[in-house]
Automatic annotation (TrEMBL):
GO terms for molecular function: DNA binding. InterPro entries: HTH_HxlR, WH-like_DNA-bd_sf, WH_DNA-bd_sf. The keyword Protease does not apply. This is Helix-turn-helix transcriptional regulator. Keywords: DNA-binding, Transcription, Transcription regulation. Pfam families: HxlR (PF01638).
Length: 125
């Protein structure tokens, strides 16, 4: 679809903001990054992301699963285990997130300079 002839497709409405908030938050990005590498169990994710608490990780996994970004798979083992893996929709984010991370790496020095100029100018007031 051509966004120049259909500018309404680029409007950021409440559902768009909600989805972006839920997918691009701090823990969701980390979880998706880990799961893009390989399926993992809950405790493997906790070890891979030591700063996340159990409650935050549980909430993040449930939200990502609800949005179709990851899948929760019950493994037929003894004892029964659960594994999380990236779903096809979540996998489409991989290229976009990599692009955003490259962008932040490229512009961060310029952003830091702008912040310093701003802070210096506003300290004088």
């Amino acid at each position: 679809m051509d966004y120049t002839t259909h500018p309404e497709l680029l409007e950021v409405q409440a559902p768009h903001r909600e989805l972006l908030d839920q997918v691009l938050d701090k823990w969701s990005l980390r979880v998706l990054d880990e799961l893009c590498g390989q399926p993992m169990r809950f405790n493997e994710l906790r070890r891979a992301i030591p700063a996340v608490g159990q409650k935050s990780l549980t909430t993040t996994l449930r939200r990502l699963e609800r949005n179709g970004m990851i899948e929760r798979v019950v493994l037929e083992t003894r004892p029964v285990a659960v594994e999380y893996r990236v779903a096809p929709i979540g996998d489409t984010l991989n290229i976009l997130v990599d692009g955003l991370l490259r962008w932040t790496t490229e512009v961060l020095p310029h952003v830091e300079q702008a912040r310093e100029r701003f802070d210096t100018a506003n300290d004088l007031l």
